Amino acid sequence: MRKYLVFIFMMLLTTLSFAGFKEDYNNLMQSLQQKQKTIKTREQYQKFLDEMKKQMNDLISKYDVNKMNDEEKLLAAQLYNSVNDGKKALATLKLIKKPAALDQDKLNLTKAVAYFELNDYSNASKYLDMVSKTSSDYARNAFNFGYMLLGKNKNKEAIAFLEKAVNAPKLDPMTAYYAYDSLSLAYQQVGNIDKAKETIKNALNSKVLPDQIKNRMKPRLTQLDTVGKQAPEITGVDTWINTKGVKLSDLKGKVVVLDFFAPWCPPCRAAMPHLEKLYAQLKDKGLVVISITSYYGTFSDGKQKIPNLKPEEELKYIKNFLKERNIEYPVAILKDKSIYKAYGVSGIPHFVVIDKEGKISKVFVGFSDGNDPLITYIKSLLK
């Protein structure tokens, strides 16, 4: 949802030069743009998105669409989309008297977003395909639609949009990175590991992605190679927390989630309350969550940073960190990180889902929010 709102915001910013816009609209867009530049934390980012949606909703409520000219009606429809009201967006578009005189890319993209809001993915695809393929909005929204569908576990529909994104002729590096990575995950979700690998290989051969991003993606092939294989035991543990120890071979018949994390990692911290909540809900149905971290010689949790720590000192901070977050599932603190290589861990958070037969079922890298594909997938296994 965050990426979705931001892409709509970017699209709205490109319309500032339209004639007939209300002065308060221009002021709002410029104010939001300035606020976006000051965001430093995940919490500030979420607050910004909530405020943006509220202010857009307040703004559109002031408009009388019947008194607008056609360009203003198009903008009004975009604003309705930004507050997730596709029905009003389409109704507003029908009031336009001379649609042929408008920017056709913006008109068709607005229709595509409105239909997507209404879960009409066929029409969303139809109108998206009417947008110029050389427009950056085409690639961004193709990715955006695919990413949203991936979060809803609608993997086949997600694949269709994500394929559009990675094949778009105008694709910026960051959108390309997320699009390829999401497409690979979508293929993994439907059990097509070969296509998942092919997608990563295509990314590594892409002229759009810089070498720095390609280097981040290379380990994905190693990770995909682990899928379907027996999960290696967790070795090199110095200390277990919330348990005396865990052997994966003893957990057959259960769904196990391995969470490779570190307290200093913001997305790792963001994932923890969702994992704890899911664990509390589904542990009686057979869910096991095991978090894995190691000593770094320092401790940081977003509130404090303590350097030059001995392992026993760092352990105290880690225990307190987990206690503050009410983490009840097992946590392994490693003294030897060789298990990272066995699981293809190159960045965190890194999640490995192990099926009831003890085999690696899916691998997820990164975390967004409670609608993250990881959460959706775990729930689907334990319905």
Structural write-up:
The protein is α/β, with parallel strands linked by helices and 383 residues long. The chain has 3 domains: 66-131, no CATH class; 132-226, Serine Threonine Protein Phosphatase 5, Tetratricopeptide repeat; 237-381, Glutaredoxin (3-Layer(aba) Sandwich). Helices cover 54% and strands 10% of the residues. The protein has helices spanning 2-13, 23-37, 42-62, 70-82, 86-93, 104-117, 121-128, 136-151, 155-166, 173-189, 193-204, 211-217, 219-226, 266-282, 311-324, 338-342, 373-381; strands at residues 237-241, 255-260, 287-294, 299-300, 305-306, 331-334, 350-354, 360-365. A 6-stranded mixed β-sheet has the order 1-6-3-2-7-8, with helices on both faces. A two-stranded antiparallel ribbon has the order 4-5. A hairpin with a 4-residue loop joins strand 4 and strand 5. Helix 4 (70-82) packs antiparallel against helix 5 and helix 10 runs antiparallel to helix 11 (193-204). The longest helix is centred in the N-terminal third of the chain and has 21 residues, at 42-62. The chain is globular and about 70 Å long. The model is unreliable at 1-5 and 13-20 (pLDDT under 50).
